[in-house]
Design brief:
- The chain is built from nine helices and eleven strands.
- It is an alpha/beta fold.
- The protein has one domain: TIM Barrel.
- The chain has a nine-stranded parallel sheet with strand order 3-2-1-11-8-7-6-5-4. Strands 9-10 form a two-stranded antiparallel ribbon.
- Helix 4 crosses helix 5 and helix 8 crosses helix 9.
């Protein structure tokens, strides 16, 4: 866990929101925008000293929230994290990433169950893999966060909170929580979310344009059709006290479909400032209506 002093609500931004910026650029821009936390993506880290990078983040007052390995699970899933294909190789990489991220003292390292593969015992393979990952996480003192992902073209093994809890229960680990993403979990009932609030270690926020042209066409909070105010109001009333993290995928052609006015093509500092202001406005309206 981060030892940074925070106020409520704790607000972070995932480095995927500034997809093409380097780690060094993110450090400067996130600090300038007054963002309290950053969700690291391993593809931005490259070579070099993780200890030095971690110290740099602490120096500018950035806590590390939800970290994404190069391969967060043994199956590729939908769109991201497509390589390598071999599940054993992917698991080795995941365990290496968990050890690597430990120096950053993150809120959690993210994992995915992925999509089931035809002709395999996918679920049992995932459970076995998560057991090993949780053991490695325990050794280095970090928590894991299993994200609930709505089904895409390849499907999803963990598409609901209940399915996530079932997998975690089969793993039998106490260091795995649930990462909720408003994009993927907007159809979950508020009762289901609040009933399991103690298992939710993070909430990622964005909005959905209408119409949404692709899974990588996400909008600033309060500019789309997701019930963000209702979700925030419900989780706050239930006692949620962890991070809200803005995560926006806005395809500029990187993943095959150009989104009009893609935020990934806009100046990163402008995106960060707009994202912070948009979340603060939604949060204020949610709390005011309690």
């Amino acid at each position: 866990m981060s030892d940074a002093i925070q106020t409520h609500p704790r607000f972070a931004i995932s480095a995927a929101t500034t997809y093409h910026s380097s780690f060094e650029e993110d450090v400067v821009n996130y600090a300038r925008a007054g963002i309290a936390g950053i969700g690291l993506w391993e593809y931005k880290l490259g070579d070099g000293s993780d200890a030095e990078r971690s110290a740099r983040l602490r120096d500018v007052g950035l806590a590390v929230t939800y970290c994404w390995p190069l391969t967060p699970g043994i199956f590729p899933g939908n769109g991201l994290f497509s390589e390598p294909k071999d599940p054993a190789r992917r698991l080795d990489m995941l365990c290496h990433s968990i050890r690597r991220f430990a120096v950053y003292r993150p809120e959690a390292v993210c994992i995915l169950a992925g999509a089931p593969l035809a002709g395999t015992e996918s679920r049992s393979m995932v459970v076995t893999a998560f057991k090993r990952a949780s053991q490695v996480a325990e050794e280095v003192g970090v928590e894991l966060a299993l994200e609930v992902i709505s089904p895409g073209p390849a499907g999803s093994m963990v598409a609901t909170i209940r399915q996530a809890l079932e997998v975690i229960g089969e793993v039998g680990a106490r260091n795995i929580g649930i990462l909720l993403d408003t994009w993927h979990s907007a159809d979950e009932s508020l009762q289901e979310i609040t009933d399991h609030i103690d298992h939710i270690v993070g909430i990622q926020v964005c909005d959905r344009a209408d119409p949404s042209r692709t899974r990588f066409d996400r909008a600033l909070p309060g500019t789309g059709i997701l019930p963000l105010e209702e979700i925030i109001r419900a989780v706050e009333a239930a006692g949620y006290d962890s991070w809200y993290e803005l995560e926006i995928f806005s395809d500029d052609g990187t993943f095959g479909q150009v989104v009009e006015n893609s935020m990934w093509r806009q100046p990163p500092l402008e995106v960060l400032n707009a994202g912070r202001a948009a979340f603060q406005a939604v949060y204020a309206r949610a709390i005011a209506a309690r």
